[in-house]
Each structure stands twice: as C-alpha cells, then as structure tokens.
Write a structure and sequence with these properties.
This protein is an alpha+beta fold. The protein has ten helices and eleven strands.
Length: 328
C-alpha cells in the first residue's frame, strides 16, 4: 500500500516536471523567434543605413564634380541658357543631376557693408537698388521702403529700428517671440521671419533674390537674363530705366549673346546714361554663380544634395552652401 502510494506520487511529480520542461522549452522557442526577428530587423536596418551612407558619399562626390564642371563652364564662357545634365553609373545605381546658372539674383546681404570694427551698417546705394527692384516687381513704393528697412534692420548690428523698420522690440512682442539675427542672412527661407515678408511678398521676391556669404553685390549674367528677371536690370541701371526698356533690351540681345559687357552698355537705350563703373562691374557675360542638384540612387537608398557654387574672376570655384535631402 505504501509502495503504491509512493509510485503514484512519483508519476505525478514526473508529469509536473514534464509540463514544466515543456513550458520552459516553449518560452525558449518564443524567445528564440523574437531574438531572430530582432536580429533580422537589425541586419536589415544596418544594411539600409550603410546603403544610405554610401549614397550620401556618392552625392558629395557628385558635388565635387559639379564644382569642377562650374569652373569649366565659366572658363569656356558658356551661356547656360538651359541646365546641363550630369549622369554617372555607380555600383547598384546612378548619380543623376544637373548644373544651372544661378547668377541672376540680388544678394540681400549686399544691403549692408562691414566696417573695420566688424559691425554691419546699411549700404545706402544698394538699399536704393533693392527698392527699385521691388518697385519693378510690382510692389508699391511704401511697401518697398518697409521691406528694405526691415531687412536691413534684420542684418545690421545695431538695435535701433530704421523708419518703417523692425528690431528686437517688434519681434519680442509676438506670441512666439524671437530676436533679429544681427548678421548676414544664411538662406532665403530666413526672410519668412522678417516683418512684412509674408507668403504673398515671398512669392514675388524669392525668385529674384539670393543670399551669398559676403556683402558683395551679385554679378548678373546679361547673356542669360530673362524677361521674368527684368526687375533685376531695372534695379541695377537706376531711375528712369523702365520695365519696357528692360524687356526690349533683353529681347533684342544677340542670338549668341554679348561677347563682352562693353557691347551691352553701348546699346542705344543705355549708351546715353551715366552709369558708374561699380555698377557696370555688376554685369558679366559668363555665369559666376551656379546651382547643382545631385540625385543618387544606390540599391534601395536614395539621397539628394543641392549646392550653390561660386566661381571667382580667376575661374576657381568654391561651395557657398548645400542642403541635404532624401528623395521620396
């Protein structure tokens, strides 16, 4: 009787142990599945990251090729009426891109000049230039005065608002307060922060302006200037030069463009005007500012890099800025 009871208990304990073992094995199996799934995801993520990093490096390589292409185009005196495509085969995909003339714009940072003490103050001549440009683009004189003043106040080093301008006090009173930059504009998108530069104004101004990393005026390429950019020419030439004059001059441009800027300034509509040499030097028959758009496809990864390239009078190019992105 005692032996039978002992045997019964042993079998019960054996069954409980078996259930426990099966439970442990099940938990381990689930854990293994989860671990392998996590490992697989980690491997895929690492592979995708490597592909994206490689695509980004290819984009930087394409950017350097664009700098070399900009130097060649400048030295050749290419007109660049249309963007030049760039395409290269790479392992697992291609580098596609284009380089275009981006010379025709007004450098908003030329509204100030830098003094020996490093302070930025208004450049009155270029402020007048900007006001004329805005007027030619269809903005009223009063609004043009305000837009010029608020932009100068945003860049200059002092805290005193100009007439119709805006300084820290104006922006500090906003629901989400901030301060003026008191330095050069880094990117045109920054203008959205400045008083008066709402969406309607930006739709007019943005295609005509740019932000270089110096206070030097932009150099307009008279061989690629379009009718839509006529306001740039009006701002440059000065008072009494009408929109009709500018459009006529652009449309009557020689088919192959001007050989030199002297021929441009000898045109009848300009020949009788007294134009300072400093203004004449703001025109060129070669592109000096370029935009490159590089798009990379590398296996499953895509990357993009938009760059602004400046070429100086010696034909040497340098990067002014670039923006990364990922293609959809």
């Amino acid at each position: 009787m005692t032996g039978g009871l002992a045997t019964f208990r042993f079998k019960g304990e054996t069954g409980a142990a078996l259930v426990t073992v099966l439970l442990i094995v099940s938990v381990m199996a689930i854990g293994a599945v989860v671990t392998f799934e996590a490992l697989g995801y980690s491997i895929k993520r690492s592979s995708a990251q490597r592909q994206f990093d490689q695509a980004s490096l290819y984009a930087l390589g394409g950017e350097q090729l664009a700098v070399a292409a900009a130097e060649s185009l400048y030295n050749e005196g290419a007109q660049l009426n249309e963007p030049r495509p760039v395409s290269f085969e790479i392992e697992g995909g291609r580098i596609n891109g284009l380089i275009a003339d981006a010379s025709n714009c007004f450098n908003v940072n030329s509204l100030v000049q830098r003094r020996e003490n490093g302070k930025y103050v208004a450049n009155t001549g270029n402020v007048q230039h900007y006001r004329r440009l805005l007027g030619a683009a269809g903005i009223s004189d009063r609004q043009a005065d305000q837009l010029a003043a608020t932009l100068v106040d945003w860049i200059d080093s002092d805290s005193r608002p100009a007439p119709s301008g805006a300084e820290d006090y104006d922006y500090g009173a906003l629901e989400r307060p901030y301060r003026t930059a008191n330095t050069l504009v880094a990117d045109i998108s920054e203008l959205h922060l400045i008083k008066g530069y709402d969406a309607g104004v930006m739709s007019i101004v943005a295609p005509l302006v740019c932000a270089s990393d110096t206070t030097m005026p932009s150099v307009i390429n008279i061989n690629t200037l379009t009718v839509d950019e006529a306001a740039l020419l009006i701002g440059l030439v000065g008072e009494g030069f009408s929109l009709e004059n500018a459009i006529e001059l652009i449309l009557s441009r020689p088919g192959k463009g001007y050989d030199n800027v002297a021929d441009f300034w000898r045109e009848p509509v300009l020949a009788t005007r007294e134009v300072e040499q400093s203004v004449r030097r703001q025109t060129s028959v070669k592109p000096q500012r370029f935009i490159s758009r590089i798009r990379v496809k590398h296996f499953d990864a895509t990357s993009s890099l938009n760059s602004i390239i400046q070429v100086d009078d010696t034909g040497v190019g340098r990067l002014l800025s670039h923006q990364r992105g990922v293609l959809p």
